[in-house]
Structure prediction request, 133 residues.
Amino acid sequence: MPIELIAILAGAVLLLVLINLNQRRMSPLDPKYYAKKWGDVKVLSRTSAAGGRLAVIEADKLLDRSLKDLRFAGETMADRLKTAKPSLGNVDAVWDAHRLRNRLVHEDVHPKPAKLRSSLKAYEAALRKLGAL
Prediction:
């Protein structure tokens, strides 16, 4: 193989690697936005029992926004969670948190603080796994 051809092939491979690395850095997620919103969720979770319940609801909204921003398919949050399953890490914990959110919105439930904390941890882990945090 002539040296020129080897140089051209090596240059092409290098270019593809650089393009791939650049595309990974250009995420549609704005880390500053998500960090700010997650900080708000954490502050809210420490205010009161009602604040803890509201923090779970807000965390769910934030995860849903990240799924939409990442263009996961689905009409509803549940649909998007199904689509995103391989990208979420511990999907069972996220589903538990989402079901708790639904109960908080549609029923008069008052979960224990430990349940609220575990739900927030599931949302945080999923947001980290998606690259939002």
